[in-house]
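Consider a typical record:
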Amino acid sequence: MIEKLLSRLAISAAALLPLAHLTSLGMMEVLGFLLFVTSAALFSLEWLAAPSAAIGRLRTGAAGPIFGYTLFSLLSIGLMLEQTDHQLDALRELKWVLYFFALMYFFHRYFTEAWERYIPALSVAVMLMGIFTLCQFLYGWEWPRSQSVLAPWGSYFRVTGFFNQPQSIAGNLGMAVFFLLGIGLAGFSAHPQSAERASPFLVASVALGSLGVLLTLTRAAWVGLAVTLVVALARVNKKWGVIALLGMVLLVISSLYSGSIFGDRLSSDIVVNTKSIEVRLELWAANWQMFLSQPYLGVGPGQNLFQLGEVYAQAAVEHGVIDRAHNNVLEHLAAMGIFVASLYLIVSGYFLWAAYCLSSRLNTDAFTRAIGAGSLLAQIYFHILGLVDSNFFDQEVKNSIVWFWALTAAMYIRARNDGAAESANEV
């Protein structure tokens, strides 16, 4: 009875996560905590009855690197941070590790029940958010916020959705779009003749979600959309990828001379104003200097922000903007050192490889391949944005990428176990 109640709570929380990932950090935290608690309780109950089965759901190749990441992060927190409030803030940043294992366990055990609700919910959420961002772009909607955070751009506004900055909604909405697109294209690749039966709902969700990402006027997100779309189409048909690439090049060239708001935004760094590029170069140089000064444990999580002023003073920079490193690897290097940064790359690479294997290499069913393809595209998009933004340190975006990592890990374990069982049966 208790197990049934816990499973229903977990499945209900998972079904609401698509809306949370696109709208509210608070809802993400509440639902994430509920999933963590229920998954931990379900794991404990299963472990008491069948320890090997419970442990088997958590045996991922990423466990070692994740534990290493956690260990060296704790060392950096303990040795490099002196103030208690800074230590507590840094410890809260590590809660993603607990959520990852809880989500992985949940996806492994309740995959079918969860996905019956999740994919339709995600499609609806993406579609609605696309419509909302269009209204926000045109009319400056702030509901339900009482205080404006929108940045005007001419007669329009850079959309933020329900978040406080465009990069957050661009990251989460883009990952959701490519997850759905990957599922759709995987189905088409397996059965090209069924293209006419493609869900209009899915097509509308991808189209409106992509529009929402464009309306953030975030150039990194535009690049991410373009590159990931080319990769997605090339996986189905190489000619499609080439055509898409040529189309993107022509679209960029025409936009620069179109006089549209998109052309103005694109040319603001290419032709008119180089301030954004210069600011990033200053941030990259400063964080690299901090890494060189403390290469093993970094200057401490979050402390690279506080030390920027000192580094700028020594370098006599022009702009001196205090901000994140605008690169995930550099952020890890400066804040926590070479070991944590290397382990972050290993973890990220593992999940990219696992998603690729699910979509192409393993002998899996069509739906599993579709999930793998969607996760792969979502991760590619995330990492492209992470080249010019510290999006892993944006809590809204971090929650979403950890979700994709947990899903990928669970599906990879299931696929490997199914393959091993099939081989044993053949023998």
